[in-house]
Amino acid sequence: xxxxxxxxxxxxxxxxxxxxxxxxxxxxxxxxxxxxxxxxxxxxxxxxxxxxxxxxxxxxxxxxxxxxxxxxxxxxxxxxxxxxxxxxxxxxxxxxxxxxxxxxxxxxxxxxxxxxxxxxxxxxxxxxxxxxxxxxxxxxxxxxxxxxxxxxxxxxxxxxxxxxxxxxxxxxxxxxxxxxxxxxxxxxxxxxxxxxxxxxx
Length: 201
Ligand SMILES: [Zn+2]
Prior knowledge:
Elements: E1 2-8, E2 13-20, E3 23-27, H1 34-42, E4 46-51, H2 57-60, H3 63-67, E5 72-75, E6 98-99, E7 105-108, E8 111-117, E9 126-130, E10 133-137, E11 140-141, E12 144-145, H4 154-165, E13 171-174, E14 180-181, H5 182-188
Parallel strand pairs: 3-4, 4-5, 5-6, 10-13
Antiparallel strand pairs: 1-2, 2-3, 7-8, 8-9, 9-10, 11-12, 13-14
Zinc ion binds next to loops.
């Protein structure tokens, strides 16, 4: 898997570029995507998909500018109403071109990216599985998990974390902060290792 990470926007969102065979997919362009566009051009990559793991503004801020170089914008439609919230937009991002539904498979070159529904942080939150790497958005971070009070739901987040624990995943690429591994999170993340019980959060 070819992967390049950019940290974009006011909340330092991890924007991931994956590519294969001349085609690229961008996850969470959370700010001015100029560096991403330059990178795509320099490497002769055709942008096929722009994916938002969820609808919070800091994951979709750069969608409109990035779309000028091409690509279909995909997001779970449950999160469309979240996009205008929590930010003073000059111009809202475009509506998704397609639904990013659970199990959807996207091809870039010979790679397959699969959408996995992971509700909780928001009800439309979706993780992206590529080979054995999981791009978790704000669902799971190194050492912690995303909040559930900005359009999400705690019980759904708990169920999602249990589901992720059972997945055949090695690397975790979160929406903010450092990357991790699922193994490390299961051992040391208090939201996954049982240190925080059901009454604690
Ligand atoms: Zn978020």
